[in-house]
Specification:
The complex is a heterodimer of chains A (about 350) and B (about 450).
Chain A (H helix, E strand, L loop, with lengths): L1 H21 L7 E4 L4 H14 L6 E3 L3 H8 L10 E4 L5 H9 L5 E16 L10 H8 L2 E4 L2 E4 L19 E4 L4 H17 L2 H7 L4 H9 L7 E4 L3 H9 L5 E5 H6 L4 E3 L9 H5 L6 E9 L9 H8 L2 H4 L4 H5 L2 E2 L3 H10 L6
Parallel strand pairs in A: 1-2, 1-3, 7-8, 7-9
Antiparallel strand pairs in A: 3-11, 4-9, 4-10, 4-11, 4-12, 5-6
Chain B lengths: L1 H6 L15 H39 L4 E10 L2 H4 L7 H4 L4 H18 L8 H5 L5 H12 L7 E7 L2 H7 L5 H6 L5 H12 L3 E5 L1 H5 L14 H32 L4 H14 L3 H15 L7 H26 L2 H9 L4 H29 L3 H5 L4 E2 L19 H9 L5 H31 L4
Antiparallel strand pairs in B: 1-2, 1-3
The chains are: A alpha/beta (about 350), B mainly alpha (about 450).
C-alpha cells in the first residue's frame, strides 16, 4: 500500500504548497491582443526583461477584439494590464469597459503597419496596381462598359492591360482580422469610388449607406479566398498556387523577401519610408491600451509602457522599425501621453 | 451416438475430397483472402502516412538541434561599461543592452581583422552576422563577473538566424540574392570565418534549455519554459487525477449499489471522455480564473483543466482494470474474514495496479499533447521567465506548454521558426514515446493473467 500512501502524501504536500503560494501577488505584466502587434510586443518584452529588474512581461495573442474584451473584463490581478490592438478601441468597447469598472484607459499609438500585396517570387509580377484594380478583380458587382454587372473577370488583364494575363486568385484576410477592415476601407472602398461603381450603385437607387456596404461585398465564386489563420497560412496558400496573390503585413513581407515578390500600389513600393511619408497608401495605426488602475499596483507596468515608446525602441533605427514597424512621426506626443498617464475616457 | 453422427456423410450434394475445394469453399477462401488483403492495405496505408509524417517532421526539424556559433574576442571597455570605475554591478546595470552593441561590433571587427579575413562590407552588415541575443548574453556575463571589465574576453555568440540557416542548407546564395535580410557577401564572410575556425556548428543544448525568444531572434528560441510548464502541469494532473480517479472507480466498481443514480454517473463519465477539450478550457476560465481568482497563464490552472479532461479516461481504465480481477480473489478474501475494504485494498487493488498505471500514463500522454483548453486560460503566450520551483509557488508563475510552443513558433514570420516548430514537435514526440513505452513496460512487467 506504499503507493497509495505516497500518492496521498504528495497530494497533501501539493495542497499545502498551493495555499501558501496563492497568497503571493502577481509581479509580471500581462499583455494580450492583436497578433499583428504581438511580434513588436514580444521584442519589447524581451528587451525590457533584459534591461530592467522586472520580470519579462507575458504577451498573449488572440486578436484585437478578443484582447480588448479581456481587457474590459474588470480590474484586478487576474485580469490583463495591457491590450494590444491593430485598430482603435471602439465606442462600445469603452462602454463595456466602463460597465466593468475599467474607466481609466491610456491609449498609446506605437506606430504604423503597412499592408502589402505579394505574389510568389517566381510568380507573376504586379507592378501597376491601383485600388481600382483590386476592386475590379475582387468586387462582387463591378462596372463593365458603364454597366453594373456581377464580376465577370477571370484574368487580371481582362480589365487592365498592364497587368499579367493570369487567373485572378487572391488570398485576403478573413473578417476576424483587423487587417480586413483596413483592406476594405483603404483598398476596396477606394477602388469602388475610383472606378465609379459607387456612383453607379447610388444611381441604381441605393442609399449612400447601402451603396457603401455593396461596395465592400467581395465576390463569392472562389476567386477571393478568406484566410482566417495567420500570414504563414497565406504564404502556404500562395506557395501552392503559382498565380496567387496574398495580403501580408509589411514586417512579414520583409522577413520573407526571398520567397515573396511585392506589388506596387499606385506605382509606389511599400517600405517603412514610403509608408511614413504617406506615398504608399495602405497602412494603419497600431495601438496598445493600458489599464490606468493597474499602474502602481503591477510592478513594471508603467516602465514597460515608457520603454515601449522610448526613442531607442520605437524610434527610427530601433529594433521595432528594423522589424517593419513604421515609426510614429509624433512619438514625442505619445511619450508624453504615457508619462502623464492621460486617460482617454475623460 | 456421437460416433455415428460423425460418420454420417454430410447432406451436401458435393461432399467430395478434402483436397479439392468445392465452389463454396473456394468462394469462402477467396473472401477471407480479400479480407486479409484489405486489412494489409489498411495497415500499409497507416504505416505510409506515419512514415511520411515522420519524414516531413524530421527533415524540417532535426536541424533545430544544431546551432551555429561564432567565437569573438570582445574588448570590455571600462569607460563605457563602468563609468564610475568601482565595478559595482548595481551601478553597471544602468548600461543597457544598447550600450553593449557597439562593443560586440568592435569585437567582431577586430576578430575578423585578426583572422586575416578581408571584406569590404559595411560595419552594420558585418554586425548582422551575430544574433541580437548576444548583447543580452554579454551584459549578463559582465554583470555576473564585473572583474572582466577592462579585459578582452573571448565570447561564443550565436550566429544570426540566416547565417545559421546557411550552414544548415536552408539559406543559399540564390535565396540570399533575393533576401533583404542577408546578402551573398555576408554568406561569403561567414564561410571565411568558418575556414578560420571561428565559426562552428554544434549540438544545440540551448534549444532544449533556453526560454522562448522574440521574432527577431529565431536562433535563440528554445523550449525551456515550455518543457517546465508541461512538466508542472503533468505533476498537477498526476497528483490530482490519480487519487480522485482511483477512489471514484473503486467506489463505483466495488461499493456503489447498482441503481439509476450510479447508471447516470456512468453514462456521464463516458460522455465526458468524449467532450471536446476546448469545453474544459471554457470551464477552467469561468471557474478557476474568474471565480476562484487563480492567476492567468499559470500551470496550476492548466493542470486543473487537464485534470478534468483526464479524469474520465483514468476512471474508465481503472474500472476496467478492477473488473478484470477475478471475483474468486474477492470471494477468497471475504471468505477468510477480511472486510470489504481489506479485500479491495489488500488484494484487488494491487492486482489491478498495472492496468491503472497504464491508463493513467495514457491519460497523461493525452493531456501532454493538448493545446485547445490552454488557449483560453492564457497559456498560449510569449513567456521568457522560467517559473520557480514547485515548492516556491512555481505552479502559479506564467509558463507555456510544449504543444503551445509548437503553435507559437508556426505563427512567426521568420522562416527559421519552421525549423524550431518541427524541432519542438520532435521533442514532444520523444516525451510521448517515453510515456507510452513506460505504459507498455509496466503492463508487460506486472500484468497477471488468470
Amino acid at each position: 500500500m506504499s503507493l497509495t500512501k505516497t500518492a496521498l502524501s504528495t497530494f497533501a504536500v501539493a495542497a499545502v504548497c498551493a495555499t501558501g503560494a496563492a497568497a503571493q501577488s502577481r509581479d509580471n505584466v500581462q499583455v494580450a491582443g492583436s497578433s499583428t502587434v504581438l511580434p513588436y510586443a514580444s521584442i519589447v518584452a524581451e528587451a525590457f526583461g533584459e534591461n530592467f529588474d522586472f520580470p519579462t512581461p507575458v504577451v498573449e495573442s488572440g486578436g484585437s477584439s478578443a484582447g480588448l474584451r479581456r481587457f474590459c473584463e474588470g480590474v484586478g490581478e487576474n485580469t490583463i494590464d495591457i491590450a494590444n490592438a491593430s485598430r482603435a478601441i471602439r465606442e462600445g468597447e469603452v462602454e463595456a469597459c466602463a460597465a466593468n469598472g475599467v474607466d481609466d484607459i491610456i491609449e498609446v499609438r506605437i506606430g504604423y503597419d503597412g499592408i502589402v500585396f505579394a505574389s510568389r517570387q517566381n510568380g507573376p509580377a504586379f507592378n501597376a496596381f491601383t485600388p481600382s484594380d483590386i476592386f475590379n478583380a475582387l468586387g462582387a458587382r463591378v462596372l463593365v462598359d458603364g454597366e453594373l454587372v456581377d464580376n465577370p473577370h477571370d484574368q487580371w488583364a481582362d480589365f487592365n492591360a498592364d497587368l499579367p494575363a493570369v487567373n485572378i486568385a487572391a488570398f485576403i484576410p478573413g473578417t476576424n482580422h483587423g487587417t480586413r477592415e483596413v483592406f476594405e476601407e483603404q483598398v476596396i472602398a477606394a477602388g469602388c469610388e475610383a472606378t465609379g461603381t459607387y456612383d453607379a450603385l447610388v444611381a441604381s437607387g441605393m442609399t449612400e449607406d447601402e451603396a457603401e456596404d455593396a461596395c465592400l461585398a467581395v465576390r463569392s465564386d472562389g476567386v477571393a479566398v478568406d484566410i482566417t489563420g495567420d500570414y504563414t497560412e497565406t504564404l502556404a496558400r500562395i506557395e501552392s498556387n503559382p498565380d496567387g496573390i496574398g495580403v501580408f503585413g509589411l514586417s512579414f513581407y520583409e522577413n520573407n523577401t526571398d520567397v515573396l515578390k511585392v506589388a506596387t500600389m499606385n506605382g509606389v513600393a511599400p517600405s517603412t519610408e514610403t509608408i511614413a511619408s504617406g506615398e504608399y497608401p495602405v497602412s494603419r495605426p497600431l495601438y496598445f491600451y493600458i489599464k490606468g488602475a493597474h499602474i502602481g499596483v503591477i510592478p513594471g507596468l508603467k516602465e514597460y509602457a515608457s520603454f515601449f515608446v522610448s526613442d531607442d525602441i520605437a524610434g527610427p533605427g530601433g529594433p521595432l522599425s528594423d522589424y517593419g514597424l513604421v515609426p510614429d512621426p509624433e512619438l514625442d506626443a505619445v511619450q508624453a501621453t504615457v508619462e502623464n498617464e492621460v486617460d482617454m475616457t475623460e | 451416438m456421437t460416433i455415428a453422427t460423425a460418420d454420417t456423410p454430410r447432406s451436401t450434394p458435393n461432399a467430395g475430397s478434402l483436397m479439392q475445394a468445392d465452389a463454396k469453399t473456394a468462394k469462402r477462401n477467396a473472401r477471407e483472402k480479400r479480407f486479409r488483403l484489405y486489412g494489409l492495405i489498411a495497415v500499409c496505408t497507416g504505416i505510409l502516412m506515419l512514415v511520411l509524417l515522420m519524414i516531413s517532421i524530421l527533415t524540417a526539424g532535426l536541424s533545430a538541434f544544431r546551432q551555429t556559433t561564432i567565437e569573438i574576442s570582445v574588448p570590455l571597455d571600462a569607460e563605457r561599461l563602468d563609468p564610475e570605475g568601482n565595478r559595482n554591478p548595481v551601478e553597471m546595470a544602468s548600461v543597457t543592452t544598447f550600450g553593449y552593441a557597439p562593443l560586440l561590433r568592435d569585437g567582431l571587427m577586430q576578430t575578423i581583422e585578426a583572422a586575416g579575413i578581408e571584406t569590404d562590407l559595411p560595419e552594420g552588415d558585418i554586425a548582422d552576422l551575430i544574433s541580437d541575443e548576444s548583447v543580452a548574453q554579454l551584459r549578463a556575463t559582465v554583470l555576473a563577473n564585473p572583474e572582466l571589465v577592462g579585459q578582452t574576453v573571448p565570447v561564443e555568440v550565436l550566429a544570426s538566424g540566416r547565417i545559421d540557416g546557411f550552414f544548415k542548407g536552408r539559406v543559399t546564395y540564390e535565396t540570399a540574392e533575393l533576401d533583404s535580410n542577408i546578402s551573398p557577401e555576408q554568406l561569403r564572410l561567414a564561410e571565411a570565418l568558418e575556414e578560420a575556425g571561428l565559426l562552428r556548428t554544434g549540438f544545440n543544448w540551448r534549444f532544449i534549455t533556453a526560454p522562448d525568444a522574440s521574432s527577431t531572434r529565431p536562433e535563440a528560441a528554445g523550449l525551456g519554459v515550455a518543457i517546465l510548464g508541461s512538466f508542472y502541469m503533468m505533476l498537477v494532473v498526476l497528483v490530482l487525477s490519480l487519487p480522485i480517479g482511483v477512489a471514484a472507480s473503486i467506489y463505483l466498481e466495488e461499493f456503489a449499489p447498482q441503481n439509476r443514480f450510479t447508471d447516470l454517473i456512468e453514462v456521464n463519465i463516458s460522455n465526458l471522455a468524449a467532450v471536446p477539450s476546448i469545453v474544459f478550457g471554457i470551464l477552467g476560465l469561468a471557474i478557476f480564473i474568474n471565480f476562484a481568482g487563480l492567476p492567468q497563464s499559470a500551470p496550476i490552472v492548466g493542470g486543473l483543466v487537464l485534470t478534468l479532461m483526464t479524469l474520465p479516461t483514468i476512471i474508465i481504465a481503472t474500472r476496467a482494470a478492477l473488473k478484470a480481477v477475478p471475483p474468486s480473489i474477492r470471494d477468497a478474501a471475504l471468505g477468510i474474514g477480511a472486510s470489504k475494504m481489506q479485500a479491495v485494498f489488500h488484494h484487488v487493488l494491487p492486482l489491478a495496479m498495472p492496468g491503472i498505471l497504464t491508463g493513467t500514463i495514457i491519460g497523461l500522454a493525452q493531456a501532454l499533447g493538448e493545446t485547445a483548453p490552454l488557449l483560453l486560460i492564457g497559456m498560449v503566450a510569449f513567456v521568457r521567465e522560467y517559473p520557480d520551483a514547485p515548492w516556491d509557488g512555481g505552479l502559479f508563475d506564467p509558463a507555456t506548454a510544449l504543444p503551445v510552443q509548437v503553435y507559437n513558433f508556426t505563427q512567426r514570420s521568420d522562416p527559421a521558426f519552421v525549423e524550431r516548430a518541427s524541432g519542438a514537435i520532435i521533442v514532444l514526440l520523444i516525451f510521448l514515446l517515453i510515456m507510452n513505452l513506460a505504459a507498455i513496460f509496466l503492463r508487460r512487467k506486472f500484468e497477471r493473467r488468470w
